Amino acid sequence: MTYDEGLAERIRHVLADEPGVSEKKMFGGLSFLVNGNMAVAAGDDGALMFRRDPDREDPVGEHIRPQVMGERVMSGWLHVDAEGVESDEQLREIVERGVSFARTLPPK
Question: Comparing C-alpha atoms, which of 53, 54, 26, 19 is closest to residue 42?
């Protein structure tokens, strides 16, 4: 599986002024890390996953659902379909949610 390069570029744009950001290919996508902690990842077909507080109830809906890898639900991660990040505003909101939580974690 490869990641959506257009989505990765859009995420880079959102994170342009964010300190401590790096990129790493993993899980078949391109992950964006904040101080070494994964915050958001571009997947294929414009979909992405983002980090969240596993103890918090985040709304799921038409385009957001728990992230599943294989048969395992990934605690602390949500999957967003491409339709859920079509607009720059939608993407910015999702990326900011992932970055905000990643910043609560100790740097690696």
Answer: 26
